[in-house]
Amino acid sequence: MKKLITICAxxxxxxxxxxxxxxxxxTVEFSxxxxxxxxxxxGTTYFDAYGIAFEDTTYYxxxxxxxxxxxxNRGITTTxxxxxxxxxxxxxxxxSVTVDWVTIRTEDIHITAYDFGGNIxxxxxxxxxxxxxxxxxxxxxxxxxxxxxxFWDATGSVGVGRxxxxxxxxxxxxxxGGIGVGIVGWLRxxxxx
Length: 193
Prior knowledge:
Low-confidence stretches: 64-71
Number of strands: 10
Mean pLDDT: 77
Strand content: 35-45%
Radius of gyration: 21 Å
């Protein structure tokens, strides 16, 4: 019986230690998505497996803004028109986000990270763009648990071709690891291990 308890405790501990590794970086390459052009993503389940949802966001299957950034003609952008804000919502909090963006206008690009209360954690802008198209990368890290990011420009011509983020490990994995450590400690104290 002691050996069985020890094996279960060790297995639980190993599972809990590996769970954060399974939740390492998640990369969404929109070039690998096969959806019709101009698909409105709000309220859809296309990206549930990645742990993201969208607000005021459209998927473009062919758009001249993406090839220079090496994103294979596909990406997400604001739904329509100037000053619209596209939002990516994370189903679990994340610790860091990297966004590859591109625009076909020489407008300022803005990307903002928010917490679960809707408070701004961090904002970045690319200003004074002189090339058409222009592209780059924004990274948010170490700003706290990120619940969502929003991006926009004055003309509605900004797009995102790749999104990479790091989810915070699930509390269940941490709890399971704590139980495993507790059982091993208890067995050690009883000198049964």
